[in-house]
Every structure is written in structure tokens, then in C-alpha cells.
Amino acid sequence: MKYLITRADDFGSALSANHAMIQAVEYGNYIKNVSCMVAAPRIEEGLDRLIGLKKKKEFCIGLHAVLNSEWESIHYKSVLSPETIPSLVDSNGIFAFHPMKYQEKMPDVGEAVREISAQLDKLAKLGVCADYVDTHMLPEAAVPGLLDALSEFIKSKGLIDQRYFYTFPRAHQPELSGRAMPEEDLAAYREWFQTFEEEKQYINILHPAFYSEETELFCNSVLTGNQTAKTRDAEQRVINSWVLEEYCERMDIKLLKYTEAVPQGDTTMEAVKYF
After folding, report:
1. What is the C-alpha separation between 197 and 6, in angstroms, rounded?
2. 160: left (phi over 0), alpha (psi -120 to 50) or beta
3. Are 137 and 107 in contact (CB under 8 A)?
């Protein structure tokens, strides 16, 4: 038997992302963990439906903690007021673009943990009892002291820490561009699954979303909106084909919620290298 944690990130980033993830967990069984961004503009749309599905289907919901924005046209804003966390946001409460920008203005660790705590509280107020905490673009790898401070906070809340679950097979997970036919993308996943070793535990992280005007705004100096929208649409096509779970069943790959997974030691830097 092989083991695979499957996680869909960025619920709340766009309505089309929310719809793609809801469809994946409602009709399929591949996605076992959904990570929610309370700092994103669409967090409340469809969240009640996701919460309702959790009562019927086997999957976890977690906080996708945000300390940076990523996109030029879509801004992620803090839960706390800007004047209380000046090292993290501008006067409008908007996070820095990318963790690499922290070199210009290093966040205060205490402010970062307080903001993540506020995001977790907001998620609870929206009706979600989180099972785990992960982070958007791994800021803890760029801010000295944040990794341990964040782990201590997560432990104090009795939640699962992403830090211990980033293990990968020798082959990189398929990078879908949106240019290939769906059957080609599915074949790439089948070949990837074939690289898994017996009794090993891995993780597959996706960002599924239907192609939309919203996801076309997911752009920056590296990625065009069209590229990002096509990639995320390709990911939702793959997971919403309901073929991946069939492959896993045939190949003796057990799909895992975080609550079922086994900690693998501190894997943060492995994740940084991988992504």
C-alpha cells in the first residue's frame, strides 16, 4: 500500500475556485483536504455548502494562513487592523506581494502569529472548526523564527501542522499547463502514481478553479492571468473527472486526510525546494 495526502488550496480566492472544490468533494473522493483563505475576497461564498458536505463526506478543512498577496490585481487583506501589524501590511491592510519581498521589510514574528490567530478565529466564526493549519507560499521559510513560533501556536490550538507532511516521490507531481488534452493530463498523473514506493506517504497539492474572468486576474511579473487560469482549470478538470481515485484504487494508493496521515519529521525545506 502507498499513501497520498491530497489537498486543494485557495478556497476563497475566487468564486470559480470555490465551485471547483465543492464539486470535487461533493461528487468525487480524490480531494481529502480543503484549505481556506479567510484573507481572500470570496471566502464566504459557498462556505456553508462546504461545511455541509463535511458532515456527509470524508475530508478535512484547514486554514490556509495568508501573510502575502501573490497577485498584482487581487489583494489579500489582513483580519487585524493595519496599525496593529505594520510590519505585515500597508496602510490599507494589504499584504506584501511575495515572501521574497520580506528581505526589504522583514515581518515581526509576533505580529505574524497574531494575524494567523485572527484568521483562525475568523474561520471559526464562519462556522469552520479547522482540522489543520498550512500557509500560503510558506512564509515561515523566509522569516527567521516564524517556523517554530507558528508550530508552537498550532500545537497550542490542538491542530495539525503542515510542517510534518511535505514528502514527495522522486518524480515531481504533474505540472498542468492547460495546453494538453485532459486524457494527456490524466496519463501524466497515472505515470506519476507509478513512481510511488510501497509503504511511503506523499502529498499532492492542487489549486483547482474553473476558468473565469476572476482567475484571469491571477497574474504577476512571472505568470500571466491567462496562464494561471488555464493551469487551474486543467487541475479542476483532472480532479473532477473522478478518474484519479480510480487509478489510486487500482494502484493500492490510499488517499489520506491530514487526520489520518503520519508525521514525517520537519519537511518544510523539502517543500521549499519542491515548489
Report:
1. 17
2. beta
3. no
Distance CA 268, CA 14 (A): 27
From CA 154, how far away is CA 150, in angstroms rounded? Answer: 6
Helix or strand run (H / E) with residue 175 = none
Output the nine-digit C-alpha cell for 170: 522522486
Quote the CA–CA distance of 49 and 19 in Å, as a whole number.
10
Non-local (6+) Cβ contacts of 162 within 8 A are 132, 133, 134, 135
217-247 residue pLDDT tens: 999 989 999 999 999 999 999 999 999 999 9
Tell me, yes or no, if the pTM score tops 0.85: yes
Question: 133-185, pLDDT tens digit by residue?
Answer: 999 999 999 999 999 999 999 999 999 999 999 999 999 999 999 999 999 99
